[in-house]
Specification:
Structural class: alpha+beta
Shape: globular
Strand content: 15-25%
Number of domains: 2
Strand order of the largest sheet: 1-2-8-3-7-6
Number of strands: 13
Number of helices: 19
């Protein structure tokens, strides 16, 4: 997301509503990155033993039958809504309008109804309301956060944004200029250059291989009518998913859904993103660029969120490269040999091609050695798997740390939306830790053998790879 540079202080006011929780999160982050033991933090966490037994309710609006998951919490007078327009991300854009969702992300807060952009931002500031939008690869996202007192005003603004966006020419010009600058910066930052090249290597001409910001050529052609038409096709009641948490009743929410989303068309008319299966054959590609640090991205095929292998691979990834400084990769390359400050893996859950993806960086002199360690650990993990103590420790951490995700009402609303998107079930909050706890050592090791296949590992690197390169030349 590219953040607009004008009048964003309302976000500060929003943070004040959740000051204590933010401070807690800061202490957690400090511990994670600067040497505190995360297990010790969890052991003393007030959230560790929090039990989410309160029922998640499915609310259906009376008129349009819009469904939402609701988690009622009257502890604080705050209401949060998270919503997803499924299938409306940048990969679904028409090729001749590439970048339109990034532009729309910029324009939705540029004025609506009787409010100019300045007036809209003033209201958000004065009432400590947060409204945000973001375009992802598969979906388009939005959220609202407000005090109970100001929630009516917040949702009235959201309704107006959907029903009467202004999209005036001066604001459109400024939004394009911000995107033009972002495109320029992409080419100046090695990490972004690598990310785009890596996507192209994986996905070739599939929409997943596009630049999320589009191009200068396509962005220049986009006008107000294009934005309005895209909204009509992409933002509909058919592909709308809503999660709400906080101080709001089921009856209030039911009528709110009909009111806020009344202007949306019923059926989605955006084209479907074609299916895709990457050809995972081992390859290692270098992109020459003068940098202080060489950077690598690598991936193999992963699993979808509802695949039976998800939780075994989830635990396996945590052990191998997903647990920060305590992961096998970090211990081998950072702690034991001091070759890198950054190395790790994660699970990517994109609809058309889930991944087990990772990255690392190192000085040009150390880069090859880190790559050798990655392959050594990768092969060992595939062949020998994890120990029982590693699996138990990983599960303990993943279970104990899960409640940290509920540090704010906004986080809960987001999870409620994803629970519906991924068909996880209305009882997921109660059962998620049971799913992790049920994972056996054998399942983790089967997942390691199945997915950590060195013959399917695709890697793209950017940096200094000349044979005569040395550290003095880098300086």
């Amino acid at each position: 997301m590219i953040r607009r540079g004008r009048k964003n202080s309302y976000r500060v006011l929003r943070r004040l509503l959740l000051l204590m929780l933010v401070l807690y999160a800061l202490f957690y982050a400090y511990g994670r990155w600067f040497g505190f033991n995360p297990e010790h933090i969890l052991e003393n966490s007030l959230l560790k033993k929090q039990n989410f037994e309160a029922e998640v309710q499915e609310v259906v609006s009376p008129r349009y039958k819009i469904k939402a998951y609701l988690y009622q919490d009257k502890t604080n007078p705050i209401v949060s809504m998270s919503f997803i327009f499924k299938g409306a991300g940048w990969s679904a854009e028409p090729s001749n309008q590439a970048g339109i969702s990034a532009l729309l992300e910029q324009m939705l807060l540029s004025g609506a109804g009787k409010y100019t952009e300045e007036q809209l931002v003033d209201i958000l500031e004065d009432k400590a309301i947060s409204i945000s939008f973001s375009s992802g690869k598969d979906d388009f996202y939005g959220s609202v956060l407000a005090s109970k007192e100001n929630s009516t005003a917040a949702f009235d603004l959201l309704k107006t944004i959907f029903s009467a966006p202004r999209f005036e020419q001066p604001e459109l010009k400024r939004a394009k200029e911000r995107l033009f600058e972002a495109l320029k910066q992409q080419q100046e930052q090695p990490g972004r250059v690598l990310s785009l090249a890596f996507s192209k290597e994986l996905y070739a001409n599939h929409p997943y291989g596009r630049n999320p910001l589009g191009s200068l050529q396509t962005l220049k052609k986009l006008q107000r009518d294009d934005l309005v038409e895209f909204m009509q096709k992409a933002f509909t009641r058919e592909n709308l998913i809503v999660g709400v948490a906080g101080d709001i009743t089921t009856n209030e929410l039911a009528h709110l859904l009909d009111d806020v989303f009344s202007s949306l068309p019923e059926n989605m008319k955006l084209g479907k993103v074609p299916s895709f299966e990457a050809n995972f054959i081992s390859k290692n590609k270098d992109i020459e660029l003068t940098t202080a640090q060489n950077i690598a991205m690598f991936a193999v095929s992963g699993v979808a969120r509802n695949d039976p292998d998800f939780y075994p691979l989830y635990v396996a990834n945590f052990i191998f490269g997903g647990s920060g400084l305590n992961s096998r990769l970090s211990l081998a390359a950072r702690e034991n040999e001091g070759l890198t400050y950054s190395i790790g893996t994660s699970l990517g859950l994109d609809d058309k091609q889930p991944l087990l993806v990772g990255s690392y960086s190192a000085t040009p002199a150390n880069f090859d050695r880190v790559g050798q360690i990655l392959l050594r650990e990768w092969k060992d993990f595939a062949q020998n798997g994890a120990t029982k103590s590693e699996v138990n420790a990983a599960k303990d951490y993943l279970i104990a740390s899960y409640n940290l995700r509920f540090a704010s009402i906004a986080d809960i609303a987001t999870i409620l939306a994803y629970m519906q998107r991924d068909n996880l079930g209305r009882d997921f909050l109660e059962k998620r830790n049971e799913y992790v706890d049920a994972v056996k050592v054998e399942q983790v090791n089967n997942a390691a053998a199945k997915y950590f296949d060195e013959n399917k590992l695709i890697q793209v690197n950017i940096g200094n790879f000349a044979k005569n390169f040395n550290e003095q030349e880098a300086q």
